[in-house]
Write a structure and sequence with these properties.
This protein is mostly helical. Among the domains are: 43-114, MYOD Basic-Helix-Loop-Helix Domain, subunit B, CATH 4.10.280.10; 158-218, no CATH class. Helix content is 83%, strand content 0%. The protein has helices spanning 2-26, 32-76, 78-81, 94-145, 156-177, 183-197, 200-218. The N and C termini lie far apart (183 Å). Its main location: cytoplasm.
């Protein structure tokens, strides 16, 4: 009985020791897995912070670029600088700035088309004036080469007959070439007729023909 009691007492002591050891081990807060989790958590948060900061900076740059674009439009488009009494002294909204910009671009397109038409008309005028200039220069040169001609005075009636003969000849081609459906078509036909039938050589032939005809009638 004494030996049995001794063994039982030792077994109880060992059991309590194991229980204490297990409790102590479970209360220790530092293991390999926990160390790993503890060191990874700050890295994840730091990466998120960097991404958040980069996104914020990119968003700020985008907004600044958009704001600068609208500011540039307001500075370039004249109608954006004019006071709009419908909104008072309030700042123009982005929608109003865009609409005013569109209207101004359309206005510029119309002005460009109008100027191109005016340039085309002026070019035709210049061409007609050049033709007249060349014609007058040839008349002056012909007179200088034959200074004795024209000394004899001619009557105003003869001058009028020469003018009438030239105009009658020109009117025939003019009447056959001109269309009066609209003013625009009339203008185009007139310039086309001038370029075709008022060339220096053509006018010279007309004048020579009229002079020969009058000469045969007078003499």
């Amino acid at each position: 009985p004494a030996l049995f009691m001794e063994n039982a007492r030792k077994g109880s002591i060992v059991s309590r020791a194991n229980s204490i050891g297990s409790t102590s081990a479970s209360s220790v807060p530092n293991t390999d897995d926990e160390d790993s989790d503890y060191h990874q958590e700050p890295y994840k948060e730091s990466y998120k912070d960097r991404r958040r900061r980069a996104h914020t900076q990119a968003e700020r740059k985008r907004r600044d670029a958009i704001k600068k674009g609208y500011d540039d439009l307001q500075a370039i488009v004249p109608t954006c600088e004019q006071q709009d009494f419908s909104i008072g002294s309030q700042k123009l909204s982005k929608a109003i700035v865009l609409q005013k910009t569109i209207d101004y671009i359309q206005f510029l397109h119309k002005e460009k088309k109008k100027q191109e038409e005016e340039v085309s008309t002026l070019r035709k005028d210049v061409m007609a004036l050049k033709i007249m200039k060349v014609n007058y220069e040839q008349i002056v040169k012909a007179h200088q080469d034959n200074p004795t001609e024209g000394k004899d005075q001619v009557s105003d009636e003869v001058k009028f007959n020469v003018f009438q003969g030239i105009m009658d000849s020109l009117f025939q081609s003019f009447n056959a070439s001109i269309s009066v459906t609209s003013f625009q078509e009339l203008s185009a036909c007139v310039f086309s007729w001038i370029e075709e039938h008022c060339k220096p050589q053509t006018l010279r032939d007309v004048v020579i023909g009229v002079l020969h005809q009058l000469k045969s009638q007078l003499y």
